[in-house]
Amino acid sequence: MALNRTVFPFTASSGISPGSSIIVPIEPVLPKDKRMTSTPETDLISEELFGQNAVKKITKEDFNLDTETPITLKWDNCILILFYSDNDVSRGLTSIWNEAAMSVVGPIFAASNLIEEEKVGRAFADIKKKNTPYQKFGLKTIPFILTYQLGEPIGFYNGELSVSAIIDYALTMACNPD
Q1: Per-residue DSSP letters for 89-144?
Q2: Cβ neighbour number for residue 162 with a 10 Å cutoff
Q3: pTM for the structure as a whole
Q4: Secondary-structure class of domain 55-174 per CATH
Q5: Residue-wise pLDDT tens digits, 30-79
Q6: Domain ranges within the chain, ordered by starting residue
């Protein structure tokens, strides 16, 4: 099975050996007859979320960008999304995010590159200027981790940026219905 991969090079300030890089598998490319697709009418869970493909790529098509609530998702699942760009903290966090995602069964881990997904980034920047309940989720810093339930953002992750801390959050707090 062929994989789409994103390569993240590291610099000395990222805490990883300069010149090193990691490959984060994002989505498998399967033959059409083997694909399990997701639509808003079905669960987001698919083959691409298991094994080494534990991180779902989130794009502008996953958001309700043309509505009054542009930062909401078209999915009802509990999803933890890493929004990142091309900076040292983002590069370092992607490997932690991928490792946490591969270690957990249940919560959906996803990622959205705000450089590639410019409309998504713009929606987060613009929402803080509007008088809505979503204003508090406006763009403040990149990277950031946001938890969604029933398509709506419910909270930022502001804990330690380690595999164990993110796993603990994902399993105990993020998708807890209370």
Answers
A1: HHHHHHHHHHHHHHH-SSSEEEEEETTT-HHHHHHHHHHTTS-STTGGGS--SSSE
A2: 12
A3: 0.70
A4: alpha beta
A5: 333 333 334 443 333 333 333 356 899 999 999 999 998 999 999 888 99
A6: 55-174
